[in-house]
Design goal:
single chain; 21% strand; 11 helices; alpha/beta; 9-stranded mixed beta sheet
């Protein structure tokens, strides 16, 4: 049964709402890759025109989703393979945005004290930053180890600092003059199976809190003056979505027609306007592992020979 409704930050889930022959999808292309030996699925959704952007509710740009169910099982060799795959995809995005960039700022968004929102700060903790090394040891050192100069910041949240994370990041960008910003954040998904096991990369920037209806200041080229690549992992799912999944499976087994199923689920979703987000029991371990994987992918891009 096709998933309908429910909050999500994932472009791949939004695309699932439309049939292949839907006229509104003429401005949206999808490329699929599957690494069978590792069971890793890579989807690239490209929104190419205004009609596609309007239908999807997302800006024109590229959205890469790496789905790796095995991340939840904790095998280190598998996690490293996912990090390498993410690194390859991230390098492609960086090359397309600005292949000559020499200064990059990595920002970890979210609240370190709230486990489902701690992905950004935890990932920043695992980065091997290089800007200070290059400043101290010089250009010869940079060339010897094939380094890209990058620094990192965990911006905190409004309740902790009294400042919007966007305000903090803007100030750092004005002072440091990076050519690209990479923003890491927790996301919302519709599918419980994607929590902690899926990574989305996009060249369109990020709207912190959008997936849970708590929109903060956008981080993109318009607001920061430089391209922003967003890296996110879903850590929460709308409770109404879980209800839809379970009810949908039950109704389908009972032979209820598709149109009637859709109407029943729509009415059930509208019955209670309260929004509730849930997260899995082992979210602390999922977020830790996801943070390590994202950080390793970034390290592989910029300082591989130091690892």
């Amino acid at each position: 049964m096709k998933q309908t409704g429910g909050r999500t930050d994932l472009a791949v889930e939004l695309r699932e709402d439309f049939s292949e022959d839907d006229e509104r999808m003429k401005g949206v292309t999808v490329k699929e890759e599957y690494y069978k030996h590792r069971k890793v699925h890579v989807s690239t959704v490209r929104i190419t025109d205004a009609s596609g952007a309007e239908a999807m509710g997302r800006p024109i740009g590229t959205y890469i989703t790496v789905e790796a169910k095995g991340l939840s099982e904790g095998e280190e060799c598998f996690r490293r393979f996912v990090a390498e795959t993410l690194s390859e995809q991230l390098l492609q995005l960086l090359e397309a945005v600005d292949g000559k960039a020499k200064e990059i700022l990595v920002v970890g968004l979210g609240n370190r004290e709230a486990t489902p929102d701690a992905l950004g700060p935890l990932a920043v903790d695992e980065l091997v930053v290089t800007r200070h090394l290059i400043l101290q040891l010089g250009e010869e050192f940079r060339k010897k180890y094939h380094l890209t100069s990058f620094c990192a910041l965990a911006a905190g949240v409004l309740a902790q600092t009294g400042m919007e994370s966007g305000e903090v990041i803007k100030s750092v960008v004005r002072e440091m003059h990076p050519e690209i910003v990479i923003a890491i954040d927790s996301l919302a998904a519709r599918s419980t199976g994607r929590l902690g096991t899926t990574v989305q990369l996009t060249d369109t920037g990020i709207y912190p809190g959008a997936g849970i209806g708590n929109n903060r200041q956008a981080l993109n080229k318009n607001t920061l003056g430089v391209p922003v690549i967003a890296v996110g992992v879903p850590t929460v799912v709308d409770a109404a979505t879980i209800l839809q999944e379970r009810m949908g499976e039950y109704l389908r087994k009972k032979g209820v027609p598709e149109a009637e199923c859709t109407e029943i689920l729509r009415e059930a979703g509208e019955e209670d306007g309260q929004v509730l987000f849930v997260t899995p029991k082992g979210i602390d371990e999922l977020v830790r592992r996801a943070g390590e994987t994202v950080a390793e992918a970034i390290n592989l891009c910029f300082c591989k020979e130091l690892l």
